[in-house]
Write a structure and sequence with these properties.
By secondary structure, this protein is an all-alpha fold. The chain has helices spanning 2-9, 13-29, 33-55, 58-75, 85-102, 115-119, 124-142, 146-157, 162-169, 173-196. α5 crosses α9 and α8 packs across α10 (173-196).
Length: 197
């Protein structure tokens, strides 16, 4: 009985995160700019990682991220706290990404180093090897369907839980897990095929 009371009294980190988000949204709607800044700081990294995986250009990812957070700020009053803020935010990010593609502003250049690789360059040989591996992954990922790409990018680049991804894409969590598993298996096969050539 004590265990059940403790579990109910102590929210999980995700539950606490959701509560923090809802509190910050309410404060931001009331005009507290610092509250929105906390939301921005909490989610800019996963948003940027997801956009870099989709766009592969720093400038483009920054542009779409800025637009997404601007739209989130303008739409905060429409947020309904019956789900996680991060799911609502990534729905806006996806819409901004679609708008960006529609405007034809997407510039693709796959040979660019990601910020993670560029920040720890050890030697030209190691950098070249990492760049080649990154290129292989991007090439294999590009061969998946757009839906599979998005699921893997939300899961592994943005590091979102399956429940949040389900909310973003409008599917059941079990269906998202199965689709992500299949996409990951297909990606592994493609990487194995690419390396055997």
């Amino acid at each position: 009985m004590a265990l059940i009371q403790r579990l109910v009294a102590e929210p999980t980190p995700f539950d606490q995160q959701t509560l923090d988000d809802h509190r910050d949204v309410a404060l931001a709607v009331a005009g507290d700019h610092e509250a929105f800044l906390r939301l921005y700081q909490r989610y800019i990294t996963p948003v940027y990682r997801f956009l870099m995986a989709r766009l592969q250009q720093h400038h483009d990812a920054e542009e779409v991220a800025a637009l997404a957070f601007e739209r989130a700020w303008q739409s905060l009053g429409q947020f309904k706290p019956n789900g996680p803020f991060v799911g609502w935010l990534f729905t806006i990010v996806r819409r901004c990404l679609v708008d960006f593609y529609r405007r034809g502003q997407h510039r693709r250049q796959q040979t660019q180093l990601s910020p993670e690789l560029a920040s720890h360059q050890a030697s030209p040989e190691l950098t070249m090897l990492e760049l080649e591996q990154q290129s292989l992954v991007h090439h294999a990922l590009a061969q998946l369907t757009p839906e599979q790409q998005e699921l893997l990018q939300l899961r592994f680049f943005a590091q979102l839980p399956y429940a949040t991804i389900a909310q973003i894409v409008g599917k059941r969590e079990a269906a998202v897990k199965m689709a992500a598993y299949r996409a990951l298996e297909q990606l592994k096969r493609r990487l194995t095929d690419d390396q055997s050539i």
